[in-house]
Amino acid sequence: MDAMWFRETNVDDDTTIARHFFQLWRDNDVPEASIQGNWLETTVEFIQNARQTLAYKGFVAEINGEIVGSAGCQLFAGLYPHVLSEQQRKYGYIWGVYVDAGYRQQGIAKRLTQMAIAHLQSLNCTRVILHASPHGKPVYSSLGFRETNEMSLDIVSHF
To answer: Domain residue spans in the chain?
Structure first.
């Protein structure tokens, strides 16, 4: 049996996290032409900034020394001014949960998500939010996530 290892990432893993993030979009049927050409640099820079300002942590799953899955989490910067106390609203955000196709359905995404939740709990977050793909929803539901009242409108095709 192959040895599986879960660990926190370091800066040397940022490129792998970025590659997984790119592949996550591709696996969700986003055409490569719709992804900016500088996606790698943009994602690595985002991670570096989030690590410094938003308590970012990443986590990976390795099998025989090869990273086969990853997830990132950070404090949620918000969409509007912070006027509520942290005891009322301090959100954490999980993003980029990805597992290589050959290793899915083995509990890897669930374990990575649990590690991210634990980190956000250590920051005293009051809620964890994420945006799930159709394939990810069962994983997150099994961990107690519930669908919320977030609504969206695609204005490119609507108007």
So the answer is: 4-145
DSSP code at position 13: G
Distance CA(6)–CA(61), nearest Å, equals: 4
Per-residue pLDDT in tens (0 to 9) along the chain, 159 residues:
578 999 999 999 999 999 999 999 999 999 999 999 999 999 999 999 999 999 999 999 999 999 999 999 999 988 888 888 888 889 999 999 999 999 999 999 999 999 999 999 999 999 999 999 888 999 999 999 998 877 878 887 655
Q: Residue 67 forms beta bridges with which residues?
A: 62
Model confidence, pTM: 0.91
Domain 4-145, CATH 1.20.1250.20 — does that match? no
- 74 within 8 A of 56, measured Cβ to Cβ: yes
- Count CB-CB contacts under 10 A for residue 98: 27
